Amino acid sequence: MDKKTIRKQYKELRQQLSEDEVEELSLQIANQIISLDIWDKTYFHLFLPIVEQKEVNTEYLLQVLAGRDKEIVVSKSDFETREMTHFLLTANTKIKKNEYNIPEPIDGLEVPVSKIEVVFVPLLAFDKMGNRVGYGKGFYDLFLSNCKPETLKIGLSFFEAIEAIDAVIDSDVALDFCITPNKIYQF
């Protein structure tokens, strides 16, 4: 299936979820992550969900990370360069939604990409080879391509893997894992 069709189909599927379903499925995803062998790492990059797009609510995962004394990193996007600047999430971090309803830090202590060891990646859909479809702007592919090769890339999805995504290109960065409410995929 081509990316445009997948993007449309999975946006529609997500919009059909009730708020309660989004919360329950998000909690199941966070509970799945607890069993991953990632807890020796320190710096975890987490996306803050776009509520209007019914993205996975990462608040549960945030609580797990904070409870394990992990350094949590969140990003601010530059829509002209498609680059992201990464900041340490602290008690003093002020979060504000940008024009696309993406919650972002206003400022803070910047964290270099080289320090990030685990990235939780937002997505609309993924396939059995670890390829993902996002919103199509390429922010995460650019960010992930600048991470160290050993940085773990973990997708979070309400839905199970599709067979294959057509027309995967060289700049698409594949996932190492994808977590759904019912399954952990490893690629």
From TrEMBL:
<comment type="similarity">
    <text>Belongs to the 5-formyltetrahydrofolate cyclo-ligase family.</text>
</comment>
<dbReference type="GO" id="GO:0009396">
    <property type="term" value="P:folic acid-containing compound biosynthetic process"/>
</dbReference>
<keyword id="KW-0460">Magnesium</keyword>
<keyword id="KW-0479">Metal-binding</keyword>
<keyword id="KW-0547">Nucleotide-binding</keyword>
<feature type="binding site">
    <location>
        <begin position="132"/>
        <end position="140"/>
    </location>
    <ligand>
        <name>ATP</name>
    </ligand>
</feature>
<dbReference type="InterPro" id="IPR024185">
    <property type="entry name" value="FTHF_cligase-like_sf"/>
</dbReference>
<feature type="binding site">
    <location>
        <position position="55"/>
    </location>
    <ligand>
        <name>substrate</name>
    </ligand>
</feature>
<dbReference type="GO" id="GO:0035999">
    <property type="term" value="P:tetrahydrofolate interconversion"/>
</dbReference>
<dbReference type="InterPro" id="IPR002698">
    <property type="entry name" value="FTHF_cligase"/>
</dbReference>
<dbReference type="Pfam" id="PF01812">
    <property type="entry name" value="5-FTHF_cyc-lig"/>
</dbReference>
<keyword id="KW-0067">ATP-binding</keyword>
<keyword id="KW-0436">Ligase</keyword>
<protein>
    <recommendedName>
        <fullName>5-formyltetrahydrofolate cyclo-ligase</fullName>
        <ecNumber>6.3.3.2</ecNumber>
    </recommendedName>
</protein>
<dbReference type="InterPro" id="IPR037171">
    <property type="entry name" value="NagB/RpiA_transferase-like"/>
</dbReference>
<dbReference type="GO" id="GO:0005524">
    <property type="term" value="F:ATP binding"/>
</dbReference>
<feature type="binding site">
    <location>
        <begin position="3"/>
        <end position="7"/>
    </location>
    <ligand>
        <name>ATP</name>
    </ligand>
</feature>
<feature type="binding site">
    <location>
        <position position="48"/>
    </location>
    <ligand>
        <name>substrate</name>
    </ligand>
</feature>
<dbReference type="GO" id="GO:0046872">
    <property type="term" value="F:metal ion binding"/>
</dbReference>
<dbReference type="GO" id="GO:0030272">
    <property type="term" value="F:5-formyltetrahydrofolate cyclo-ligase activity"/>
</dbReference>
